């Protein structure tokens, strides 16, 4: 079977949602990301990332510069109500020639916890990959011991593919990496469920969901 490659790698553009706006990561986001890296729950979130939480503005700015100098393409997740960056995520393992791409380097700060912001931030990436760039495979990877990340992958509709044993050394510890994917034939049904869940009528006057997202695989 002949398979066509994707159209292109993701470009530096803004993706608009109802709750969040994804902006190409820039130095101006560093102060907000530093603030988002403080408070309850932060140590557990950073436990599984390759880098440590920034403790100074200089460290946050250095992270932005390193990410923009590498092959990955990072965005800031901006809360549209406050106008502040409350997290970040990146396009990684970008292979237009194979129409395959990963969402990775995800840090969703405490302000995004248990809100629609994280769900929409993920959805905007997936929709752009499948519907606009015409990718056929969308990946999610995490430390196999990171149960919250694995649960999130399943909630978002990813299929578990297995474990790469002793795949990385992260912060002095051996990491087994769990692999998940969504492929293009699965995407239309997943997209429809995200659109249903994110619709205004699924939230009450206090912004609480009326029904749960039902794409768990």
Automatic annotation (TrEMBL):
PROSITE patterns in the record: GNAT (PS51186)
EC code = 2.3.-.-
| Domain N-acetyltransferase intervals | 31-176
Family matches, as Pfam families: Acetyltransf_3
Where would one find the signal peptide in this protein?
none
Ordered alphabetically, the record's keywords are: Acyltransferase, Transferase
Which Gene Ontology molecular-function terms are recorded? acyltransferase activity
Protein's name according to its UniProt entry: GNAT family N-acetyltransferase
Q: Which organism is it from?
A: Devosia albogilva
């Amino acid at each position: 079977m002949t398979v066509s490659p994707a159209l292109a790698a993701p470009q530096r553009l803004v993706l608009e949602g109802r709750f969040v706006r994804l902006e190409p990561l820039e130095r101006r986001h560093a102060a907000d990301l530093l603030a988002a890296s403080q408070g309850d729950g932060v140590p557990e979130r950073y436990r599984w990332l390759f880098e440590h939480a920034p403790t100074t503005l200089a460290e946050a700015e250095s992270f932005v510069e390193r990410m923009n100098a590498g092959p990955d393409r990072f965005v800031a997740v901006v809360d549209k109500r406050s106008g502040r960056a409350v997290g970040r995520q990146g396009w990684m393992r970008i292979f237009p020639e194979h129409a395959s791409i990963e969402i990775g380097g995800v840090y969703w700060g405490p302000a995004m916890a248990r809100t629609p912001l994280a769900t929409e931030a993920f959805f905007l990436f997936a929709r752009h990959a499948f519907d606009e760039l015409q990718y056929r495979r969308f990946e999610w990877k995490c430390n196999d011991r990171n149960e919250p990340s694995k649960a999130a992958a399943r909630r978002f509709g990813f299929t578990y593919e297995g474990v790469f044993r002793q795949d990385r050394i992260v912060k002095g510890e051996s990491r087994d990496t769990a692999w998940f994917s969504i492929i293009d034939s699965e995407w239309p049904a997943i997209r429809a469920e995200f659109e249903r869940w994110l619709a205004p009528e699924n939230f009450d006057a206090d912004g609480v969901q009326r029904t749960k997202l039902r794409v768990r695989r």
